[in-house]
């Protein structure tokens, strides 16, 4: 059986983090090693994690330098055939590793992500995040992130030298677009594949990093896409951009708010956001809703 290293960056330790780590431990895939990379100044955090999980995981402490540093440290530590990534606010279904790795081996795929089901702090859903169209040119050009980073599994042999995460783009300055840069860069050398099924739960909430930094993140991602389209296919660590709320960004932000309120069963607020969505772009709104429902 092929071995896999699961990398979980941890900045804060709470019930959500415990659930994420536990979902990795509970996988029905035997050959797994779990690397919890602690990038935090929180006191006694390592002791808390160790008390809860003991020898089931390997804990490594690094400086509080961001999620990209944590993931890159996990890549350096891995000696497995495959590397999987799991953010500390997401969870996996029990058969995630076994189904996805078998799919990759059977089809000789090197890089594979999946759909995930949106959830909030209160409720689960069957509304999925991810794009099954698998347009390789669009992925190369960083036009969109085809799947959540928490769904990604990659052959270790693909991660050589500069094929690590951009440590600058993984900061709040850019709204954390390190995953988009990473996947688009890999797509210029490898085929990016998508297992068209959900393998876990992806957390969204109004106070989460994605929601709070949405306009900044999307503005930075649009500039990154321009650089890729312009021919810069190598590691991008820094660039200038203007934070600008375009109609497309506003529509994407409204859609995220609609999904959040709908899952939380705040149907009146969800209806209001649907009306705003229809006003800004009726065609795209109807298309997106019909795809989900």
Task: Describe the protein's architecture and organization.
- Helix 9 (247-263) runs antiparallel to helix 10 (267-280) and helix 10 packs across helix 11 (282-292).
- Helices cover 41% and strands 19% of the residues.
- It is of the alpha/beta class.
- It is globular.
- The protein has a domain at 4-204: Spore Coat Polysaccharide Biosynthesis Protein SpsA, Chain A (Alpha-Beta Complex).
- The model has no long low-confidence stretch (mean pLDDT 93).
- Helix 1 links the parallel strand 1 and strand 2 (32-39).
List the helices and strands and how they pair.
Layout: E1 4-10, H1 15-25, E2 32-39, H2 45-53, E3 58-62, H3 67-77, E4 82-85, E5 91-92, H4 96-107, E6 111-119, E7 124-129, H5 136-140, E8 153-155, H6 178-187, E9 192-203, H7 209-212, H8 214-229, H9 247-263, H10 267-280, H11 282-292
Parallel strand pairs: 1-2, 1-4, 2-3, 6-9
Antiparallel strand pairs: 4-8, 5-9, 6-7, 6-8
Helix pairs in contact: 9-10, 10-11
């Amino acid at each position: 059986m092929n071995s896999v290293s699961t990398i979980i960056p941890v900045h804060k330790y709470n019930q959500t983090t415990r659930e994420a780590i536990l979902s990795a431990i509970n996988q029905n895939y035997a050959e797994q090693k779990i690397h919890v990379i602690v990038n935090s100044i929180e006191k006694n955090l390592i002791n808390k994690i160790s008390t809860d999980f003991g020898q089931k995981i390997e804990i490594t402490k690094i400086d509080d330098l961001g999620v990209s540093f944590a993931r890159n440290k996990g890549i350096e530590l891995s000696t497995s055939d495959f590397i999987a990534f799991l953010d500390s606010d997401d969870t996996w279904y029990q058969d995630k590793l076994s189904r996805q790795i078998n799919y990759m081996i059977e089809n000789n795929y090197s890089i594979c992500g999946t759909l995930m089901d949106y959830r909030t702090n209160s409720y689960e859903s069957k509304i999925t995040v991810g794009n099954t169209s698998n347009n390789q040119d669009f992925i190369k050009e960083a036009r969109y992130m085809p799947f959540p980073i928490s769904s990604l599994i990659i052959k270790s042999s693909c991660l050589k030298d500069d094929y690590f995460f951009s440590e600058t783009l993984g900061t709040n300055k850019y709204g954390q677009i390190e995953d988009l840069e990473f996947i688009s860069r890999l797509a210029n050398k490898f085929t990016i594949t998508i297992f068209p099924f959900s393998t876990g739960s992806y957390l969204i909430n109004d106070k989460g990093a994605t929601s709070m930094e949405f306009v900044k993140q999307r503005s930075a991602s649009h500039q990154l896409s321009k650089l890729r389209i312009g021919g810069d296919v190598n590691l991008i660590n820094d660039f200038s951009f203007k934070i600008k709320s375009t109609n497309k960004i506003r529509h994407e932000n409204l859609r995220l708010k609609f999904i959040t309120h709908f899952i939380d069963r705040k149907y009146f607020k969800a209806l209001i956001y649907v009306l705003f969505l229809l006003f800004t772009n009726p065609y795209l709104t109807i298309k997106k809703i019909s795809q989900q429902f």
